[in-house]
Known about the structure:
- The protein has five helices and 17 strands.
- By secondary structure, it is of the alpha+beta class.
Amino acid sequence: xxxxxxxxxxxxxxxxxxxxxxxxxxxxxxxxxxxxxxxxxxxxxxxxxxxxxxxxxxxxxxxxxxxxxxxxxxxxxxxxxxxxxxxxxxxxxxxxxxxxxxxxxxxxxxxxxxxxxxxxxxxxxxxxxxxxxxxxxxxxxxxxxxxxxxxxxxxxxxxxxxxxxxxxxxxxxxxxxxxxxxxxxxxxxxxxxxxxxxxxxxxxxxxxxxxxxxxxxxxxxxxxxxxxxxxxxxxxxxxxxxxxxxxxxxxxxxxxxxxxxxxxxxxxxxxxxxxxxxxxxxxxxxx
Length: 287
């Protein structure tokens, strides 16, 4: 797919999201949800895990364990996995599709940088489905990225489908960003900005948005439900890991050095570099 000239090319960003790994209690039911509601397809299947994606590209790995404790929304972890549609028309087709499914939407917002809809899977893991606006719409007069939470004009959005129907998650779609619940935004800044090297692209009260290459955010952290939360219990369902794809391998070496200086343990192997944020989420960086 050719990226329109004024739209952000995520593949050119120094760092972008690869796949997200969730621990779930009912593997088959949650997998069926993502296949039917988001149109993801199985990429790999094992006894206790299913990897879903599009065009053979993994986007979401589900690891099943019926003995997990249910997700506690007050804990640090996932706020939402944000699935990026390649075009506004793709988003409109998905909206028409989900309107016919027995799945309640939790919100719909115009963020200036994007148009987004919100829901949750069967175990409470948050989901955003969105399409970006042209990059020229993102910035204020001084060049800052402007973000807001305004009502979404659904009727105008639906018109962009141009009479075409949803046929599954687009091959050029991706996980555009991962928004997390954290215990403290200053601690999150020290990890995601100071160690990983992401920019703070924008701030909301109680939230930081981390971008790479000028994007409005590939990662974010907020304390809206989880202020002062500590490390998440290991035996709880929810977010386990986020994969970050790094264009330049030298950046991974630099991140490893900064982690070491900050006293953060990391593991380097053939799969890349893995370290954990202050709340226990595994971050794996791959070239």
